[in-house]
Structures are given as structure tokens and as C-alpha cells.
Design goal:
Structural class: alpha+beta
Oligomer: single chain
Shape: rod-shaped
Distance between the termini: 116 Å
Helix content: 40-55%
Length: 331
């Protein structure tokens, strides 16, 4: 592409009025022989990957243009956007030049641009691979890729050119045009598709793990319910055995079973007193000693439960009757 971009001029010696361009050609398609890296085959898919990764900011830093590929030194300019031209065969960059970078170009110290890139960029933190990625570019006078538009074209500027330069600058202020339709996919799967495939695989694995967790939670709930039921059945069985033993010893009667099983101490005492009074044969001659003995058993049993000497009221009653057999005889 031989179009020359000229902008609002700077006055330098010999009345030449020039300024560094806002857009420069970074790279083009073709097969090249690099003296250090050997054969390089630059395809439209590679240029498209450069733009996609730049737009996605996969490197996490701004991309600079340096002097003679000295990326550790100061920058001559900063790449603000990438654009594919000529049916995706050329990669162009919008550049914000530094004051010194503009001066170096204006004084013809550098004229060409050389891209700095990798064909398989890997993030050094996440270790994710992003494929072909533009790392930057360097001002040079001996680029590997020849026959590209020079970085700066110095010439006198006519009134007509000044007006065109003004229109170009206004155009650069507008929002960038929508990206061109992607070129036909090469034989290898593009990095973007690889990324989507990996995301889909991870989502499927997450769904599988969630289902397994749900199944385990349901089984745990079943085990807990079964354990609680077994504990309840055991407790009822122990209470029944305790009551049957007391009944066989004549210490309680069948009428007290429900109160005993439910742990209702007051009801148990009332029923006991009612049964004893009935056995006396007359409501006018209450068996006071029996009632007193019953109350003592209840009081002592309640104290044992309160002092954590027994796990429940029924156990406490058995403990009191065992310790004070005389109270059992009065019953």
C-alpha cells in the first residue's frame, strides 16, 4: 500500500514541513528468510491473531515502538490500535508518538518499522497460550521485511495537502471502524476457538462435579435420617425395658406407661398418687406416706437431672430407687 499520510506540519530547516504519521504499516503477508530465526511464513491468519490478541489486551501492558528493538529502553511511540488492510494482507497501527520519537522521524534518523512478535505467546502467570501475538515494533533502517510503506515520508506540503491532512486528523478522532470479517480459518484451529473449547470442557466438568456433590448430599441426608430413627427407636426400646422392669417390681402401674415414655414427670406423679389412693379404698383416708415417698422420688430425680448425674428423668428415677430402696417399698 503506497498511500502517504501527511499531517499538520512542523517547521524545520530548509522550510520542509513534516510530522510523524498517526498510522504506520507494521507487517504484511509473505514468506521471509530471517538471518537468525530462519524461514518465516506470515499469513492472514497470523495478522488476524495479532489484532485479536491486541484488542483483548492479552499481554496486560501497552504495546510500544522502540528504537532499534531496544525494548528495555525508552519508547518512541505507543500503539493505540491495529487494523487489517488490503484483504487482511497488511497490518497497520495507529500510533501516539512521543515528542522525541516525532523529532527523530522528522530529522530522518529512522525511516522504517520492524515488527517484534511471537507465534505462540504464553502468559507467564496463567500459562495460557494465545498463539501469534504482536509484542511491539522497533524503528530501524534495515528491516527484514522489505517493500513496505516507509514510516515517514518527508516532502513539502501544499495548501491542498494541508486541507487533506486536516481531514485525515478529523477522521482519526472518529470511533474505529468495525473489524473486518475474519479470513477463512486455516488448517490449524484458531486460538480463539481453542479457548472456547477449553471453556466448554471446564463447564462440563463443573456440571459433572456439581451433580456428584448433589448425589452425595442426598445420601448424607438419608444416612442422617436413618441414624436419627435408629437412635429414637433405641431410646424408646430402653425406656420400655426400664418401665417393664419397674412394673415387674411393682413400682409403677400400666396407667403410668404413657407419662413415663413421654418424660412427663408431673403426670407420672399424679397417676402414681391416684393409683395409690385408689388402692387405699377411700378418698377420705389418703395414703400420705405414699404420696410423700412419690414426691421425694420425683424431687431427687429432678435434682440428679439438673446436676447432670443422669441423662434423663427416667434414668434418674431408677437411680433414686436403687439408692433409696425404702422409697420403693413405700410405693
Amino acid at each position: 500500500m503506497n498511500e502517504t499520510f501527511r499531517f499538520i506540519p512542523l517547521e524545520i530547516a530548509l522550510s520542509e514541513i513534516v510530522e510523524a504519521p498517526a498510522r504506520v504499516q507494521v507487517l504484511r503477508t509473505g514468506s521471509f528468510q530471517h538471518p537468525q530465526y530462519g524461514a518465516l511464513n506470515i499469513t492472514p491468519a497470523i495478522l488476524l491473531s495479532f489484532k485479536s490478541n491486541f484488542d483483548a489486551k492479552v499481554r496486560g501492558i501497552d504495546i510500544s515502538i522502540d528504537y532499534s528493538h531496544n525494548s528495555e529502553s525508552i519508547a518512541a511511540g505507543w500503539i493505540k490500535g491495529l487494523e487489517l488492510m488490503e484483504q487482511d494482507s497488511e497490518l497497520w497501527a495507529s500510533v501516539e508518538w512521543t515528542k522525541r520519537g516525532s523529532q527523530v522521524l522528522a530529522e530522518k534518523e529512522f525511516r522504517y518499522l520492524s515488527a517484534d512478535f511471537t507465534l505462540d505467546y504464553k502468559d507467564n502467570e496463567t500459562l495460557k497460550s494465545f498463539g501469534p501475538t504482536l509484542l511491539g515494533a522497533g524503528l530501524t533502517n534495515r528491516p527484514v521485511v522489505k517493500r513496505m510503506s516507509p514510516t515517514v515520508e518527508l516532502s513539502e506540503v501544499s495548501d491542498e495537502s494541508k486541507e487533506k491532512n486536516k481531514m485525515d486528523m478529523e477522521k482519526d478522532k472518529l470511533p474505529p471502524a468495525p473489524p473486518a470479517a475474519p479470513a477463512p480459518a486455516p488448517a490449524a484451529q484458531p486460538p480463539a476457538e481453542d479457548k472456547e473449547k477449553k471453556i466448554a470442557e471446564l463447564e462440563a466438568k463443573c456440571a459433572e462435579m456439581e451433580k456428584k456433590c448433589a448425589d452425595l448430599a442426598a445420601k448424607c441426608a438419608e444416612y442422617e435420617a436413618a441414624s436419627a430413627k435408629a437412635a429414637e427407636d433405641k431410646s424408646l426400646s430402653e425406656k420400655k425395658a426400664s418401665f417393664d422392669k419397674l412394673m415387674s417390681e411393682g413400682k409403677v402401674c400400666e396407667a403410668q406407661r404413657e407419662a413415663f415414655m413421654s418424660g412427663d414427670a408431673m403426670k407420672l406423679a399424679e397417676l402414681s398418687q391416684s393409683v395409690k389412693l385408689g388402692e387405699a379404698g377411700s378418698a377420705n383416708t389418703p395414703a400420705a406416706p405414699v404420696a410423700d415417698a412419690q414426691e421425694q422420688v420425683i424431687t431427687l430425680a429432678q435434682e440428679k437431672v439438673k446436676n447432670n448425674q443422669a441423662k434423663d428423668f427416667e434414668s434418674a428415677v431408677l437411680m433414686v430407687l436403687s439408692e433409696k430402696p425404702e422409697l420403693a417399698e413405700k410405693k
